[in-house]
Model the fold of this input.
Amino acid sequence: MQVAIIGSGKIGATLARRLTETGHEVTLANSRGADSLAELVAELGPHAHAANDIASAAADAEVVVLAVPFFLYDRLPPAAFAGKVVVDATNYYPGRDGDIPALQDDSTTSSELIAAHLPGARVVKAFNTMVWTQLGADGRPAGDRDRLLLFVAGDDTDAKATVQVLADDIGFDTIDHGALSAGRAQQPGSAVYGVPMTLAQAS
Done:
């Protein structure tokens, strides 16, 4: 699959590593330009590429992963994401991202705010509940009883299925939480956030 990852921090770089290891083509972009990604791309090998900006990274991608601090979401160029499956791997932390009353009173979710900003995108909440070290090291083959679980939420069934394929490819089972609004069950402070569990443990 052609995947763009916006952000090259711990989650972005870890997902890029795991996806390239399983044969996906990954294009990375960040706020500092392609030159800043040269070392990481060289380390990841021939399936990894760097783009100068978000629009260039997303242009040929089937899936775009947002792995940036949440407070940057409203700086994303909506046109670049039109028609794309967009994976929201961000988390809202008031101390870092500022006071957002609609999130603090739980009248909406961070993913719904992102979806409203990117009206042409097919947004799926995923890859946000697991510690990056586990995401990078703890993938297991399908059927392994110790295989850990990732969670997805979104309003587009096909988009969720695409994200579930990527999760499976890098060694994780998935549970579909339902609509994008149900992604609040994956947010910081929820029962599944930062808690490693298997499918059997979640049942």
Observations:
- The chain has one domain: 2-202.
- The mean pLDDT is 97.
